Amino acid sequence: MNDPIDVVQADLMSAEAQALIGALNAELAAMYPEPGANHFRLDPDEVSEGRGVFLVAWRGSTPIGCGALRRIDDGVGEIKRMFSIPEQRGRGVGRAILEALEAHAAKLGITRIVLETGTRQSAAVGLYRRAGFIPIPPYGEYIATAETSLCMAKDFAQNDK
Fold first, then answer.
1. Of 102, 107, 59, the residue nearest 82 (C-alpha)
2. Spatial CA neighbour of 96 closest among 135, 126, 66, 63
3. Which residues is 53 bridged to in the sheet?
4. Which of 73, 80, 133, 136 is the most exposed place for a label (fewest CB within 10 A)?
5. What is the pTM of this model?
6. CATH architecture group of domain 5-160
7. In the prediction, which pLDDT does 141 show?
8. DSSP strand E in 119-159: where?
9. Domains in the chain: boundaries
10. What percent of the chain has pLDDT above 90?
11. Exposure string for 74-103, b = 16+ CB within 10 A, e = fewer
12. What's the rounded mean pLDDT across residues 125-132?
């Protein structure tokens, strides 16, 4: 499985997307069993044309990861549902998805991207830090789960696009 990674826009309700999201939800539920620790909501209209995007990463004919970007405010987007299948971790999947999401953010005029990841997800935290994300105070629904949530942000100057 040394095929290149192909990251493409996908329908959130597609079978591939739902399988990846199901695997992500199961992994998060096992990692964070505390009541209310997980926030699984992402609606199709939030990733519709002009509002956001849902991406699936492929190696050959195998879906290996996903990620979404949704607009949450003027100029602000939020990354959601980042995931790569365990056997593909450490092989550039997350980086490829994140770069594609940042490119879509630029197309949408988004100049700040925020995200929430779990404090127990050290690989994800490392990926985001290497990509230039910095910790920020908990926001929105994550204020209630600050003990297991790490919120981060990355700002883009207009000429970075």
1. 102
2. 66
3. 69
4. 73
5. 0.93
6. 3-Layer(aba) Sandwich (3.40)
7. 86
8. 134-136, 149-155
9. 5-160
10. 82
11. eebbbbbbbbbbeebeebebbebbbebbbe
12. 97
